[in-house]
Amino acid sequence: MLLLKFLKDILLSSINLLNGASGWLVFSYIVAGLLHDVITPARFHKSLGNTKISSIFKSTISGMCLPICSCGTIPLGISLYYSGAYVGPTLAFMASTPALNPIALILSYGLLGKELTMINVAAGFLLPFIIGIIGNKLGGDELRKPNLEEEIMLASLDQTEKIPLLEKLKSGMHWAIHDLATVLSKYVVLGMLFGGFILTVFPDSFIQKYLGNPSMLSLWNVAILAALMYVCAVGHIPFIAALIASGASPGAAITFLMAGAATNIPELLSIYKMIGKKTAIIYGLVISIFAFSVGYLTNLWLMPGFKPAINFNKIDNSIESANKFLFTLPEPLKYLCSLIIFLFFLKAIYPKIKDLSRSLAKQTR
């Protein structure tokens, strides 16, 4: 009975996590599909297919303008890479979108105070540049998609024949449905199941209790835990405020804030499978080390004597301002989007299940 309850709790936690991300995932699949054949690989390669700082800057600015969570950046970031962007600009885009989410920054100002918000903005703008430069330097054979030049040359030859816009959109959506969404959804669902397991073993009450006691967990442990968890870039701001109110140091809060928003297991799994092991290690490790370093410096600056910024008028105004920009799907639509992601997951694993059933049938003969 205890095992069944444990498995049920994991499943429910996983569904809740998927409901929070599925709407943005479906939206990102659609955007990636629509842009895939409209913006040519040659144009992407010319703009982001190099190791220049300007390319990292472009992808950082593009990412920070999108108010979506880290899971929502996966399809768009992978699409950038497969369309001709180097790994540096790709990682910079993936890091900047959740770290500099404009809605999260508004809530951060109201719930966490001016000092932590300033640190979050400065660190969130610096992180994409650091991770982009390191990705370009250490990417190795994952610096760009294999056979990229040949694909760009073939695509350029195809462009000599005028293709109607509608045909490009259809072709892009076909790629998004049958390639991008099918492959990525498999790793997203697996990652959400792992995230549900972590949240079941380490629920919010447990995390708040031990992060609220500075002697229990080091900043490094906080950085690793946050990097593995899936937390919404906006929804976890009140949780961070609760951590501070329960006694967590401002450094622990900012570490959890940055690492939690910028990466998670579904994202790392997707990067590992779609780009490569080296890129996934660079992304996870750089974010964890950077979040730890910012947390450490935050404690040096604000401790001792740090006081949580509890100003209810400011909090109310910030929440009201954030709500003007915040788009929340109705519950039925969340479940519909989660169902779509799950159907893509089933489509991805169906061939392996079919092969497994065939091998089992042969063994029983």
Task: Give a topology summary.
Elements: H1 2-36, H2 41-48, H3 53-64, H4 70-82, H5 87-99, H6 102-112, H7 114-138, H8 148-158, H9 165-201, H10 204-211, H11 219-228, H12 237-245, H13 250-262, H14 265-274, H15 277-302, H16 312-325, H17 331-364
Care to describe what's here?
- With 365 residues, the chain is mainly α.
- It is 79% helix and 0% strand.
- The chain is built from 17 helices and no strands.
- Helix 1 packs across helix 17, helix 4 packs across helix 9 and helix 6 runs antiparallel to helix 16.
- The longest helix is centred in the middle third of the chain and has 37 residues.
- The radius of gyration is 21 Å and the shape is globular.
- About 3% of the residues have low confidence.
Apparent shape: globular
C-alpha Rg (nearest Å): 21 Å
- What are the secondary-structure elements, in order, as H or E? HHHHHHHHHHHHHHHHH
- The rounded distance between the terminal residues' Cα atoms is 36 Å
Poorly predicted tracts of residues: 312-316, 321-325
The percent range for strand residues is under 5%
Structural class designation:
mainly alpha
